[in-house]
Design brief:
NADH Oxidase; globular; alpha+beta; binds flavin mononucleotide
Length: about 190
């Protein structure tokens, strides 16, 4: 039996060691090349009908884009996201025009998958990602004014982790994953 609070051996280290940091090294930098690779990782994710319904707004400390994001962080996320080397706003295109109607039900699913790929790529590059919803969605939407049909879904703080995963990482059991949908208590 593996320890219930950490992934068993056999899980790929990129997945096993991934965690969402609550502390980032403020001196770390994500340069243009690294940023390009993170976007490439998202770009090559699968999506329903290859609709690729994802988009990103990105700011690094010192850039005007970063200044536009910071005021919309919630106090809780501002504590750690401000020090991250990169802030990413994730957007998806739910809007349906013509033949893309078929794909719209998977828009958020596809975006999540692209973000997962970006997260694993970050891990492979010695970076860590903390996805979050703790920001002013309405205010940020007004600020960024995406085209009609595009909606902001989440944010990601990316950078060099300056903390470790908590000792007690809570996860439901693998058996539960197979029984939960039919369990009377769920
Ligand atoms: C869509 C989404 C929204 C999240 N929102 C927040 C948030 O607002 N604040 C926060 O501290 N963590 C947030 N998280 C991080 C989760 O709490 C975290 O992934 C979970 O507790 C598991 O921890 P781990 O990523 O370290 O394994 C969010 C994660 C996701 C995927």
């Amino acid at each position: 039996m593996h320890h219930p609070h950490e992934p068993p051996s056999g899980i790929h280290p990129l997945l096993a060691r991934r965690f969402s940091p609550y502390l980032f090294d403020p001196s770390a930098v994500v340069d243009d090349q690294a940023l390009g690779l993170l976007l490439e990782a998202a770009r090559w994710a699968p999506s329903a009908g290859n609709s690729q319904p994802w988009g990103f707004f990105i700011g690094r400390p010192g850039e005007p884009e970063h200044d536009r994001l910071i005021p919309h962080l919630a106090p809780s996320s501002a504590r750690w996201a401000t020090d991250a080397s990169l802030l990413v706003v994730t957007l998806t295109r739910r809007h349906v025009d013509g033949t893309q109607l078929l794909y719209s039900e998977f828009a958020a699913y596809d975006l999540g998958q692209a973000v997962a790929h970006m997260t694993v790529q970050a891990q492979a590059m010695g970076l860590a990602a903390h996805q979050f919803r703790a920001f002013d969605l309405e205010g940020l939407t007004k600020e960024l004014a995406p085209n009609p049909g595009w909606v902001i879904v989440s944010m990601i703080a990316l950078g060099k982790a300056a903390d470790s995963p908590s000792e007690l990482r809570d996860r439901r059991s693998a058996a539960h994953l197979r029984s939960a949908p039919w369990s009377p208590t769920e």
